[in-house]
């Protein structure tokens, strides 16, 4: 009993040490792995047991065929960033919504949805949208809070709308179908996009000085017919989206095979746009390797941390803390969502996914929500709720990466306080979307056909 209590406190100390280490600025991948090794020795864990960490890393991460999809999706997103597709589509969408109050902001939100389904890379999406849209919005007299908010929020849609790297990792962690996760995430992702557009329409009506109408005669340099231009600029992304998502949802290709199709398709699209060069290809490959290595090192560190944490009884501690609240199934679900939301202020989605999900998923899986869902359907629904929740982690200070990307783009012309204020309504919209998906599970489960 005394040994169990001692391990119980060691597990708690692991969590506290992790949170404290985050604020030191030390690389999270090494922090997770280092804490796992340190607490293994402090807790007196036998050395032979540590061999299971290596086997978990090789068997569960390095040899996981699904993980190959990550660098392929990263490459696809980065290649599309340099293809010029987004720039042309933004100009065409501006022509479509030019006479609508807040039309340029709406164009940015729609472009965010389209590019999210084409790239799925948060950094690339936010930087791309910021470089394309922010100078134009500032020239047209948009309020900085409106401009920064819609760019940051629209750029984060790529983490939810498939093909999403996060959903690929969640499928591996929870041992559920990535294809079903992609299907389940599609409608919630479009719902968030619709909430953004509705908000922009309302705020443009209430505060017209925040979103003045542009002088189309001065900004429209494309003389081609509007519908022809829209079809031309949407064709490439739509074909790529259909090739990747369609092949997965139809069961023709696995996520890894579809990612390869997307990577090849992005190169072909860049060739057709005549925007590819050896220098562009070299930079794309280097950035793909850098991003993929970062993700892989975090996964390896998180695996080391979680194996030791569970050996010290951390999973029982978490289960006892959650079930000991006396809350019902929905109360426990809201408690977990609140915990993940708070952790999103300090941790990246990768750490939360690999450290928190394996601990709370077994608890959620056995809860009876009165919906007649199978345990597999509950896990898929839960994964989508977590994915929506983790979108806020990119927007919430102090470690909201979308805010840092946007701050870098502004080159000091817009204060960090303005950027922080700009994301408040969009975080509230994301929470609204999360609440809708909690109380109306069909939003996520209808498309994959998991409803009873």
From TrEMBL:
An example Gene Ontology molecular-function term: transmembrane transporter activity
Matching entries from InterPro entries are given as: DctM (IPR010656), TRAP_DctM (IPR004681)
- Record-linked Pfam families: DctM
State its location(s).
Cell inner membrane
List the record's Gene Ontology CC terms alphabetically.
plasma membrane
How does the entry describe its membrane topology?
Multi-pass membrane protein
What positions does the domain TRAP C4-dicarboxylate transport system permease DctM subunit occupy? 15-443
| Record keywords, A-Z | Cell inner membrane, Cell membrane, Membrane, Transmembrane, Transmembrane helix, Transport
The membrane-spanning stretches of this chain are: 7-26, 32-53, 65-86, 106-134, 146-169, 181-202, 234-252, 258-276, 288-309, 329-347, 354-373, 379-406, 426-447
Q: What is its main location?
A: membrane
- What does the function comment of this entry state? Part of the tripartite ATP-independent periplasmic (TRAP) transport system.
Q: How does it assemble?
A: The complex comprises the extracytoplasmic solute receptor protein and the two transmembrane proteins.
| Family to which this protein belongs | Belongs to the TRAP transporter large permease family.
What is the designated name of this protein? TRAP transporter large permease protein
Source organism per entry reads Vreelandella glaciei
